[in-house]
Design the sequence.
């Protein structure tokens, strides 16, 4: 579903992590760990096609939807309009299951700009469901969520995996997902010469 081979990722032109390889099949989740600044966000953005890799390959990028810190919400649109907008982007129409999964029905007509931080986060996560994409790349998905929101997210991701989806998740909390693998990016910190050597390899 997602196959990553010998990947080097840069941020602002500076190599951050290198030599990352893993594969995810249907129903599998990989939790990214590592200290602040190691490159979890950087890797997730490359997996979702939002930034190019410096070297290596990602197979399955077109199947990947990203939910990150910025949430990607349009403040003037209502909750329902935001989801309809994103559904249209992905060639889909039905937003009902996404509203339901993240308890957004009571908020459906509220302008997204007026939502609380946790409500905004739930809307950002609900976008994953309307995307219909099978691989979710999630950057600290539970930040701002209360216990109820975290439980909704855990249920949504368990259902996603149970339905044959896959996920890569940067998180510091235990989501209680069975069979989740971990990848500590601390072991993949880029060498200072990574850009030069990988540049050469890319052209040989
Ligand atoms: N535009 C940029 N230019 C240069 N360096 C950047 C830029 N954006 C981020 N970085 C650096 O890239 C490195 C990786 O950042 P990244 O956000 O991927 O880390 P992270 O593991 O997700 O961190 P955290 O756990 O704090 O969220 C950090 O050292 C960060 O300071």
Sequence:
């Amino acid at each position: 579903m997602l196959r990553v081979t010998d990947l080097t990722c840069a941020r602002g032109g500076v190599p951050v992590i290198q030599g990352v390889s893993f594969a995810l099949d249907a129903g599998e989740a990989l939790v990214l760990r590592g200290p602040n600044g190691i490159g979890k966000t950087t890797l997730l953005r490359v997996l979702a096609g939002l930034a190019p890799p410096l070297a290596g390959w990602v197979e399955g990028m077109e199947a990947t939807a990203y939910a990150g810190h910025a949430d990607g919400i349009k403040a003037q649109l209502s909750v329902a309009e935001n989801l309809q907008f994103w559904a249209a982007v992905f060639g889909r129409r039905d937003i009902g299951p996404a509203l339901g999964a993240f308890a957004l029905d009571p908020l459906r007509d509220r302008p997204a700009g007026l939502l609380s931080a946790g409500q905004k986060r739930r809307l950002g996560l609900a976008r994953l469901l309307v995307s219909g994409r099978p691989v979710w790349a999630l950057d600290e998905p539970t930040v701002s969520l209360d216990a109820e929101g975290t439980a909704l997210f855990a249920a949504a991701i368990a259902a996603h995996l149970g339905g044959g989806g896959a996920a890569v998740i940067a998180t510091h909390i235990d989501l209680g997902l069975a069979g989740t693998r971990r990848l500590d990016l601390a072991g993949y910190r880029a060498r200072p010469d990574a850009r030069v050597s990988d540049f050469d390899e890319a052209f040989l």
